[in-house]
Design a protein that fits this description.
globular; 13 helices; Mem_transp_PIN-like; 0% strand; 303 residues; membrane; AEC family transporter; mainly alpha
Amino acid sequence: MENFNAQFVISFLIIALGYCLKKWNILKEKDGEAMARLIFNVTLPSLIIVTFHSITIDSSLMMLVVLGFVYGIIVAILGLFIFRKEERRNKGMLGMLIPGFNIGLFAYPLVQGIWGEVGIKYFGMFDIGNAIITFGVSYLIGSYYAKEDVVLNFKHVAGKMGRSIPLMTYVIIFIINLTGLSLPGTVIDITSVISKANMPLSLLLLGIYLNFSFQKSYWKGIGRVLGIRYGVGLFFGLLGFFLLPVDDMFRYTVLIALILPMATSVLPYSVEFKYNQRFVGTAANLSILISFVLLWVIGNMIV
C-alpha cells in the first residue's frame, strides 16, 4: 500500500512539474509534440522489447489480447448506437472518442512503478488488442463520418497501423517469442537503458498537455462520452475483477485498464478529419484527471 501511494505521489509531482514548466514558458505545448514522438518511437518500444523479449506467453496472457480487442468492439458499437441521432460529423467525433485507452503514456509509468516488469507484461498484452482498436476501429469511425459518401479504405487503415512503431514492436517481439528466437544481448542492454526514460518523460508530457480551460458548451457532449467510457468500463471491470477465475495481476489489469483515459491518437485524428480539436482536447484532458483519481481510489481498495 505504501509503495502504491508513494508511486502516485511521485507521478502526480512529475505531472505537476510538466504543467508548471509549460506555465512558466520553459516548455511549450508544441515541444510536447517532439517529446511524444520520442516516447512513442524510442522509449516505449524499448520498454516493450525489454519486458517481452523473454516472457512465457501462456493462454491467460493471450486472453488479455482478446479482451482488449473484444471490449473495444463492444463499446464502439454501443457508442455509435447511443449517438445514432447526432449529426453525421458530430457522431463521428463523439464515436471515435469512445473506444481505445491511453496505456503507453498513462498506464505504463504507474504500472511500472507499482508492479514492475510483471505489471508491464500484463498491461502490454491487453495493449496489443487495444492498439488494434485505437489505430484501426477508432480511426475508421472518425474517417467514415468525417464526410458524406465516404468509402472505407482498409488499405489506408492497414498502412496507418503498420506505421505505428509501438504496435509493430509488439508484433515483432511476439513473433520472436513464439518462434523461440532471442535478441542479441547488446540490443537488450541498450533498450534497457533507454526504457528507463519512458516513465518520467511520459508523465512530464501529460503535464505539458494538461489544460484546465474548458468551454461550457462542451459539457453535454463530453459528459455523454465520459459517462459511456467510465460507466461501461467500471461495470465490466468490476464484473471481471470479482468473477474471473484468474490470478490477481490479471484481475488488476482488467479493472484498471477499462478505466484508463482515452487514447492520445484521438488528437491527431481530430486534426486529420477537421473535427473540433478544442472539444477533443478538453475531453482527453478530463479523462486523464478522472482516471488519475479513480485509479488512486480503486488502487487503495484493492492493492
